[in-house]
Write a structure and sequence with these properties.
Length: 159
């Protein structure tokens, strides 16, 4: 006899917080990409630390990465927690590489402390919400549900 249908899975406050953080990172990168491309078109000779085309392309790339994270978290896909941690960590590393290697203005060194606190907080929130026992349990339930669906589908097919 087939197993009863599992209960519908609901997001926890931690996954909702994580979704909000990912949405904010997505929007930030979309805005960064749009403003940078607009600067490159309207002010081609504007002296900036980084090329507006580079900033726009990187912003679009990270926006796509955070959109994928947000999609995975929203759908409770089993790959989403690890993927989200990886994308966020690489994103932070990219930001720091840009700040330290390519930042030439006096303000770039003056704001490093603020960005260290901000980036550490964001990374800790992302990892912390994904490591939270309720969140881990929710993704484990989602993985079991996907397995159940595969078994139901395989059992419902005729040979």
């Amino acid at each position: 006899m087939a197993q009863d249908t599992p209960h519908k899975l609901k997001h926890t406050p931690a996954t909702l917080l994580l979704s909000f953080i990912l949405l904010a990172l997505f929007v930030e990168n979309v805005v960064r990409a749009v403003i940078s491309i607009q600067q490159a078109v309207e002010l081609p000779r504007l002296a900036t630390d980084l090329s507006p085309i580079y900033v726009g392309a990187i912003g679009a790339l990270w926006a796509a990465g955070f959109a994928a994270c947000l999609f995975g978290i929203a759908r409770l896909n089993p790959w989403a927690p690890r993927f989200t941690i990886a994308v966020t960590a690489i994103y932070m590393a990219n930001l720091w590489l840009n700040r330290l290697a390519l930042g030439r203005s006096s303000e770039s060194t003056a704001t490093l402390g603020f960005y260290a606190i901000l980036d550490t907080t964001v990374l800790a929130l992302v990892i912390g919400t994904l490591a939270w026992p309720g969140t881990r349990r929710l993704f484990a339930q989602a993985a079991r549900y996907l397995e159940w669906l595969k078994q139901e589908k395989a059992g419902g097919q005729k040979p």
